[in-house]
Design brief:
With 212 residues, the chain is an alpha/beta fold. It is built from eight helices and five strands. It has one domain: P-loop containing nucleotide triphosphate hydrolases (Rossmann fold, 3-Layer(aba) Sandwich). The chain is 56% helix and 10% strand. The chain has a five-stranded parallel sheet with strand order 2-3-1-4-5, sandwiched between helices. Helix 3 (49-75) runs antiparallel to helix 4 (90-98). The chain is globular and about 45 Å long. The mean pLDDT is 96.
Length: 212
């Protein structure tokens, strides 16, 4: 039996943390949440992406590397199931969008070295939604530094995510991707929708031979 390890992915504000928390609570999984407030570069990054992208992307990569190393050592090694509100591949999605080609090349080389022996999830949950919905949720959440996020940046990121996930599915047939449309399914306000998402995840874990 494999130890369940689910990662939730999707563009900014789509509901990754919200769904991860719900899954952790309902399934009694360990919750791995990405670091946001401690990131010293995010504020500057949104003010001037070209100037701060390398520092920002490296900061996210190093943090996620440390978090996943700890998860492997202290949680998965103890056979405790995990749900994470990110997959480390998101570094590539953001970095490819924000870094100039010459820096991206260096960044990707470092990424490949650091992620070689990272734990691999049994499945990925991909949440997507219209850019209108994403912009509304970002505004509603009200993080100060995210007021500077431009609609065009979100349009590009949402498309980047679609393309990357399609490619990921082709390249990793052993890691299934469950897709949910955040405009059609509301696991915050509608309990039946949350039950549906949980059922789909359970079924996928069973098919993957995971004990949960
Ligand atoms: N299905 C939903 N319906 C309505 N509001 C939602 C839904 N999912 C999340 N939200 C709200 O949208 C905001 C963003 O959600 P959340 O923080 O979970 O997104 P995220 O994908 O983790 O964001 P980030 O990429 O910034 O980490 C929050 O205020 C949350 O309460
Ligand atoms: N540039 C950049 N690279 C990343 O790897 C990355 N991961 C998350 N974020 C931004 C999105 C939200 O504002 C906020 C919380 O998710 O942080 C990122 N920004």
């Amino acid at each position: 039996m494999n130890v369940p390890f689910i990662t939730i992915e999707g563009p900014i504000g789509v509901g990754k943390t919200t769904l991860s928390q719900a899954l952790a609570t309902h399934k009694n999984f360990h919750l791995l949440k990405e670091i946001v407030d401690e990131n010293p570069f995010l504020n500057k990054f949104y003010e001037d992406i070209a100037e701060w992208s390398f520092q920002t992307e490296m900061f996210f990569l190093c943090n996620r590397y440390k978090q996943l190393t700890d998860i492997k050592k202290y949680i998965l090694a103890e056979k405790k199931p995990v749900v994470a509100d990110y997959h480390i591949f998101k570094n590539l999605i953001f970095a490819q969008r924000t870094l100039p080609a010459s820096e991206y090349e260096k960044y990707e080389a470092i990424y490949q070295i650091l992620t070689k022996d990272m734990p691999k999830p049994n499945m990925v949950v991909y949440l997507y939604a219209s850019v209108d919905t994403l912009m509304q949720r970002i505004a509603m959440r009200g993080r100060d530094f995210e007021r500077l996020i431009e609609r065009q940046y979100m349009e590009q990121l949402a498309q980047d995510y679609h393309d990357f996930i399609d490619q990921f599915e082709r390249n990793h047939p052993d890691i299934p991707v469950l897709r949910f449309n955040g405009d059609a399914i509301d696991f915050v306000k509608n309990h039946d929708d949350l039950t549906y998402v949980l059922q789909q995840c359970n079924q996928m874990l069973e098919e993957r031979g995971c004990q949960s």
